[in-house]
Design goal:
2 copies of one chain form a homodimer.
Chain A (H helix, E strand, L loop, with lengths): L2 E2 H8 L3 H9 L7 E2 L5 E3 L1 H15 L4 H8 L5 H37 L20 H10 L1 H12 L3 H23 L7 H15 L6 H13 L1 H10 L3 H16 L2
Antiparallel strand pairs in A: 1-3, 2-3
Helix pairs in contact in A: 3-4, 6-7, 8-9, 9-12, 10-11, 10-12
Chain A binds a DNA duplex through helix 2.
Amino acid sequence: MAWSIADVARLSGVTSRTLRHYDEIGLLPPAWIGSNGHRYYEEADLLRLQQILLMRELGLGLREIAAVLDSQVDQVAMLREHHRRLLVEQNRLATLARTVSRTIAELEKGKDEGDMTKINRPENLFEGFDASRYEAEARERWPHEYEQSRQFTDTLTAQDQERMQRETTAQMVRMAEFMAAGTPVSDPAVLTEVDAHYRGICQFWTPNAAAYKGLGQTYVDDPQFRSAYDKVAAGLAEYQRDAMAVYADARLS
Amino acid sequence: MAWSIADVARLSGVTSRTLRHYDEIGLLPPAWIGSNGHRYYEEADLLRLQQILLMRELGLGLREIAAVLDSQVDQVAMLREHHRRLLVEQNRLATLARTVSRTIAELEKGKDEGDMTKINRPENLFEGFDASRYEAEARERWPHEYEQSRQFTDTLTAQDQERMQRETTAQMVRMAEFMAAGTPVSDPAVLTEVDAHYRGICQFWTPNAAAYKGLGQTYVDDPQFRSAYDKVAAGLAEYQRDAMAVYADARLS
DNA sequence: CCTAGGAGTTGACGCAGCGGAAACCGCAAG
DNA sequence: CTTGCGGTTTCCGCTGCGTCAACTCCTAGG
C-alpha cells in the first residue's frame, strides 16, 4: 500500500509543503520515488510521521526529533532537557510580564495621578456582616454544601471567624493593588491570589467551575457584597469576578 | 560632540554590528556620515538608543519600538498589548511543560514499573504526633514566634487540628505525585503547591526565606518528620526541602 | 488532436534580530 | 613597508515552514 504526498497530507493533517520539507532535511524521506518524481509513502513512514508530530506538539525542534528517532539520544533524557528549557523560558516570560506590568503602572501613575484608582485599607470590612440573610437561599439552592459549610463554621471560635474576616479583607486589598496596577486578570500573579481565595472558600465548600463563577457574579450583583468591595476600590467587584472566571476556566475545568 | 560607532557601542553596551543593523532598518540612523563613510552619533541619538534598549529589554520588537518612538502609537497601549501576549505565551509554555512532564512520567512508568517511586496514601500521618518534643527548642530559639503560634493554636478546637493534619497529609501526597512524575522542584505547579504549604505555616508564624529553608532542612534531619515523609514516599523529605528552598529564593527574598 | 485542469515537482524569498566571516579602505606608528 | 586598528559593505546562517513562480505529467472532454 502506497500513499501519495497529498494522501499523507490529508491523513496526517500537515501540508504537503511540510512533508517535502521533512524530506528535504532528511527527517522523513518517502519510501520510494516514482519515475515521474512523485513521492510515495508506506505504512512505516506514516508511523514515523506520527512520532514526529507527537514530539513536535511537545515543542521539540525537528533536529532533536530526528536525533531521537534515529535513536542517537534517549527520548526521556531529551524530554527532560526540553522540559527544563521550557521552565526557564516560562520563568523568563513571567519576570518579563511583571516588569512590563510595573512599567505600565509607573507610566500611568505619572500620567494621570488625579483619576487613578484609590485603594482604601479598612481594618475589617465584614464586622457585623449579616450572614443570616444568605442562609435561606443557600439552604434551598445547595442543601448539601450548606450542611457541610454549617458543620465547619460550627467548629470555629469567634476568634477564628474574626481572623478569617481579616484575611478576606487583606485578600481584597491585594486584588485592588493588582487592579490599580492595570494587571490583567489572566496574570499568573492574580491567578495565584485567586487560588488563595478559592482555597479559602474550600474550607466551607468546594465549588466547581460554574459555581465558582456564580459566586463571583454574586459579588457584583449582591448589594451587600458589592458595597464591601466598593469600600476597598471602585470596580473591584467586577475585577474579582473576572479573575474568578478566568481561574475557574483555567484550573477548575 | 560626536561619537563614532565604536564609542557608542562601548557607551551603550551593544555591538557595533547592532548599531549598523539599527541604521539599516531605519530605527537609529546616525546624526551624520563622514566623507570616509563612517557613522557619527550625537547626544540625541544616544537618548534615542537608550529608549530603544529600554523597550528592547521589555521584549518589544524593533518594529514596535520604532512605531512608539516615532509616536505613531501610544506607548502604554503598546505595552498593554505586549503584556497580554507575554501572558498568553507564558501560559502556553506552562501548559506545554505540564504536558511534557506527564509524557515523561508515562514513559518512565512504562519503562521501569518495578523501581518507580511508590506513593502511599495514609489517611492521617500525624495522629498522635508528639508536638511537645519541639516546644522547648522552639521556645528557646524563636520566643516571639513561639508565642504567636501558641496563641493561634489555643484558639483551635480538636476538630480544627484534625482537619489541618489531614490537609497536611494531602499536601504531602500531592508533592509525592510531583516527585514521582519527575517534575523538577522549580516547576511552577510545584511552587504553587509549596505556596499552599507556606500559607499553612503562616497561620502559625511567618518565616522569612532563611527560616523557611531551615524548616525544610528540619523535615530531612528530624527523625520524626522524616519518617512521616518516608511513609508517603521515599525521598519525599528531600524533595520537599528542595522545593521549599527554591520557593524561598523565588518568593521570599 | 488540442486544451484545460489538477496534482505533482524543484527553486527561491521571507520572517526577527542580529552573529560572524570575508574582503576591502584609510590612517598612524614602528 | 608592514602591521594593526577601526571602520566599511555584503552575504550566509538560524527555525519551520508559507507562499509564490515556473514547470512537468497525466487524464478527461470537446
